[in-house]
Design goal:
By secondary structure, this protein is of the alpha+beta class. The protein has helices at 57-63, 67-73, 77-88, 101-113, 128-133, 147-153, 166-179, 183-186, 195-202, 282-285, and strands at 2-15, 20-33, 39-46, 93-97, 124-127, 190-192, 206-207, 212-213, 216-217, 223-224, 231-241, 244-251, 257-266, 271-279. It folds into 2 domains: 2-203, Nucleotidyltransferase, domain 5 (2-Layer Sandwich); 207-285. Strand 2 (20-33) and strand 3 form a beta hairpin.
Amino acid sequence: MNFIIFDLEWNNAYNYKLKRGMNEIIEIGAVKLDENLKVIDTFKQLIKPKLSKKLGSRFKNLTHITIDEINQSGISFENAFDNFSKWCGKGDNLFLSWSTSDLYTLVANFKEFENTVYVDFISKYADAQKYCMHFIENADSSNQISLSNCAEIFEIDTDCINFHRALEDCMITAYCFEKVYDADILQNFIHTCDISFFERLIFKPFYIKEAQYSTFNLDETKIICPVCKGEIKPVKKYEFTNNTFRGAGICDKCGKKFWTYIRAKQTYDDIVVSTRAVQINKKRAKHLV
């Protein structure tokens, strides 16, 4: 099995079709390692942007890439990734990147420019950042470590490295990966990349605003009384505010009155419904029919 470590540099551009910003890939770099973790090839390509002809100041300050450099050496997104796919080959490859943000950006760009979320040349993927953090004592998974910090912890010399250029970042990731490589432990971090893997990656959960949506039906959602476990029957029409259906009801068992709250969230796999009931104080309850 070969290991392909890739890194992307992207510019924040405004997508007028989507009416929001998105990260447009400007550079891709990759290093290919054999089963003994020896470098057997590298890949580097600038990409001409389609969404914005201007480079953001943050991008320029981080990468030092210029428009002149892109105009001189850049090619289209489609050609760049066609070349990259051919360079990767059809063999048994495990793709890695430092955090899933590069993979997410790649899929989002494929959706925009290739009209698909399926990156067909990636069949197996592992998050190199998450893998390396497994070997760092007291590392907090909720506080992701940067590539430069990881290299420092692993005592890797980076004095001559230009961070935030794609190929250089790939090389540092490869050095970090090699430092803690364990074939058996790595198996726990590998994902099989079918179409659902990519769809799930970019799916954005959202709160449901409609009273009836797919399998969700507001009127059929039961709220259980926190006092006696009876069912709270609505006596006030629900209003939708702050992603929540808000109403009021009376328990059919103990007769107590409650403010009721229902939230329905669409995830990739299902609709998740949560309910809450807060007892109304006696003064307010008297005015509730």
